[in-house]
Amino acid sequence: MKKLFVSLLIFVLALGLAGSGCISGGSGTSTSSPSGSETQIRGTIHFYTSIPKDIAIKIADEFQKKYPNVKVEVYRSGASKVMTKLDAEIESGKIIADVVWLADPGNTIYLKNKGVLMKYTPKDADKVPNFAKDPDGYWIAGRFIAPVIAYNTKIIQNPPKKWTDLIDPNYRSSLPSPWNNAEGWVAVPNPLYSGAATAWVYGISQKYGWDYFKKARSMGIVVLKSNGAVKNAIIEGQDPIGVTLDYMVRQSMEDGAPINYVYPEDGTVVIPSPIAIMKTTKNPAAAKAFVDFLLSKDVQELLVQYGIIPARTDVTPPKGTPSIENIPQIKIDWEKLSSQLEDVRNQFSQIMG
Fold first, then answer.
1. Fold of domain 43-144+271-321
2. How much is the pTM?
């Protein structure tokens, strides 16, 4: 009888422990946030971005390794084209995008003001400076980028030091022939395609007025499609000086290309490049997990390998890169830029053609 009682007691205790395990497992299967295990988050997310395609695909691949049941569909183009696609989706009421990572806050604030973004505070958000995240929690920077003056090191021996050098006839006359008298001695990116270019144009127009671009046009400065196109034109010697993004130059320097750059003494626009989740996402768990992943130390360190200044303050920036605080800056009001995006682009186009 005693043996029977002990056996029954063990059986009851075993049932209790098994039941307890089932409850714990059930509570862990929620997919309402990315805190569940990687295998419990599944489905597809659509990632719209203006970051370079090779970086976007690399990040998506790494995320899919960590979350094997999630597929990331990447749409990559210039910020203006991404926004055109998003605007069309918003207008139709059929928004496909889940996560958006654009070049500058201007476009992201525009989306916030249209009421199409989701509030979300990612893991490790405290590692990102306050000025690089939305105070209301709708976006957070994933990197810092900055327009710089880049130049071909085989052609230019006395590189410009300031933005005003690019509209100074005396500086131009100091260059070797034919660049001291040729159209196309300087190239700039087109804000109709690039969000970073829009931020740069806005910053320069705020500091020097639109007369800066009128002088630039009269001095033979030309407009190319993108920052990448400007960088390539400099390396090839087509346009020996240009305005492009700092990390693109660092990457090319690492590859041995004849290019270098300066952060202008009169300041540049340091751009916190924002990440946001669309409010209409059909897969919020995967979208949140993806944003957490973008801000993870692993991905931030990956960005450094591409010459990009990370958003996280606990990740060391690329070798030889000054800290954000030590880069001379033109401070701009991102809210104002957001409300003037079309005006800025139209004004630039009217002047520069």
1. D-Maltodextrin-Binding Protein; domain 2 (3.40.190)
2. 0.86
147-269+348-352 adopts what CATH topology?
Answer: D-Maltodextrin-Binding Protein; domain 2 (3.40.190)
246-285 b/e (C-beta count within 10 Å ≥ 16 → b) = bbbbbbbbeeebbbbbbbbeebbbbbbbbbbbbebbebbb
Question: pLDDT tens digits for 208-262?
Answer: 999 999 999 999 999 999 999 999 999 999 999 999 999 999 999 999 999 999 9
The helix-helix angle for 284-294 and 53-66 (nearest 10°) equals 120
Q: Give the CA distances from residue 56 to residues 49, 83, 185, 306, in Å, rounded to whole numbers and listed in that order.
A: 8, 17, 32, 12
Residue 258 phi, psi (nearest 5): -80, 70
Q: Where are the domains of the chain?
A: 43-144+271-321, 147-269+348-352
Distance between CA atoms of residues 279 and 198, nearest Å: 26
